[in-house]
Amino acid sequence: MTELVIKSATISGLPLKLHEEKILSLKPINYLFGSNGSGKTLVLKKITEQAKSAIRTANKDKDGYFAQYITATPQHNFYQDQYQLLDRRASEFDLESTEVSGQAFYQHLDEFPEIKIKIRDALQKYLGRYPNLVKRGINNVMRFLRDETDIPEYSPQQESDGLRRLSLLLTYIYHPKCIFLAVDEPELYLHPDMISFLLEEVHTEVNFGKQFAFATHSPEMIKIGKAENYGYFYFNLKDKLKDSHIIQASEVGAEQLIENLGYLLDVNRRAFLYAPITVFVEGLADEVVYSKLKEQNKVKWSRRIFMVNTGGNSNVANFWLLWRKFDKDCRVILDSPKTGKEKDFENIINKFCDELSIDSNLMLGDKKTQLSSHNIFTASFSDVLIFGTKNVELKDLDGAFSALDISQHIEILQNAIKVDELKVKQIRKEEEEWLSEIAKEMFGGLINGPDNTALDTAILKLKNEHPNLEITKVDGDTKFLATIKFLVSKNRIIYIKFPKSTIDTEIGVE
């Protein structure tokens, strides 16, 4: 394998000392993923700066080699502006900056016609159109062409954002001198098929000694492959920003799990990379039945919970273990073993017990009891399509569901998706206090008028201006003047009583 531009990066100097002194071990292709606000963009820029420094230290910049960072911010000026060609290498424009300049973009295309050839060939094959760099005096101008002979050359402003973005990315992916490329949200504006194509091109260019780093929110952008090629960095955003940290697969022993799961980590299953809480079920039938319970509001299902089937009970433990290594909140629902499969089931149970240091000499029932305290549950049925004594075909489920006894299915699912009620209540209490302060600040001045006539006028005005609020006058109350109610979610109503004095504020929830 060709030597990497940069083998590791040390993070320092970020606001609030975020991820301070964290050392990232880099691979040819690196993925930074996690919640918004967890520091991915800042870290990506730091990695780029150190890649630039490594290129200068190795004196490769003398031959025009460079590292480039491309922001997620829309960059329309790269296609519409005209830049005079200067007597210098394009790579010199961005030697100290992490941003791409329009002048460098056009100069790169002018200096390396092979880039234009590859981009035109790729886009013509996929879309029947391609960018073309033309001269207007001493300036470069990008134009687009189509295969249809009756459609003349046209400006980028008439082309899709996705194609313009792709043209920019491919310019640097194909660039023979750009040996390190970092892109923030490369999936921006791109069709899923174009994302797939982009990853194929990236993988090809790695063979020429290039290195890539992507900060992404797209499960389609994260390619699963051999540990020697891919680095996975999960930005674990905790309740408090100072407690957030980067978990890299190579440090926690997750690389081999990712490689072993391979094709099972398809786009749908990779989506739970971003879920706050994941419920793993065995197969498609489990996912369908439990989803139907959710759709019919048979269980209390938080928006933060994502469910994924693992393609069979033999895979469940590996999915669960991978997510434990990434410090993710995950739960498991297992079916009871079918006749003749008891030994296989016990092996699965023992794998969970080994990871959780549960005594393997315990009776199976005791193991299952202890596992339930770790959110690993075993259903009372051997197949999710068994309802009491009735076995239902998946294709017949819709017609039969309303007449079935689903109490066991509700019970096991509700146990698996429960959330920390104490934590939720604390969050809700803080939220209600915050909303109360907002409401008092916005409406209190009107409501706390000098007399009842002013109060009546204020309530009428508020009702006219804010028809989504329910505002009522409180008659005969010694403490409160008025009550305001408003729907903050489909299941919650906040109400606030406006006091006659500041010490009598009351808030609540229905």
Architecture overview:
The chain has 17 helices and 21 strands. It is α/β, with parallel strands linked by helices and 510 residues long. A six-stranded mixed sheet has the order 4-8-9-3-10-11, sandwiched between helices. A four-stranded parallel sheet has the order 13-12-14-15, sandwiched between helices. Strands 18-19-20-21 form a four-stranded antiparallel sheet, with helices on one face. Helix 6 (192-206) links the parallel strand 8 and strand 9.
Q: What's the CATH C level of the largest domain? A: Alpha Beta
The largest sheet, given as strand count, sense and whether it forms a barrel, is: 6 strands, mixed
Count of the separate structural domains:
3
Mean pLDDT: 85
Helix-strand layout with pairing:
Elements: E1 8-11, E2 22-25, E3 29-34, H1 40-57, E4 66-70, H2 77-80, E5 83-84, H3 102-111, H4 113-127, E6 129-136, E7 139-146, H5 161-173, E8 178-184, H6 192-206, E9 211-216, E10 230-236, E11 245-248, H7 249-252, H8 255-261, H9 267-270, E12 277-281, H10 284-295, E13 305-309, H11 313-325, E14 329-334, H12 342-356, H13 364-372, E15 376-378, E16 386-387, E17 390-391, H14 397-400, H15 407-417, H16 421-447, H17 452-465, E18 470-473, E19 480-489, E20 492-499, E21 506-509
Parallel strand pairs: 3-9, 3-10, 4-8, 8-9, 12-13, 12-14, 14-15
Antiparallel strand pairs: 1-2, 5-7, 6-7, 10-11, 16-17, 18-19, 19-20, 20-21
Helix pairs in contact: 11-12, 12-13
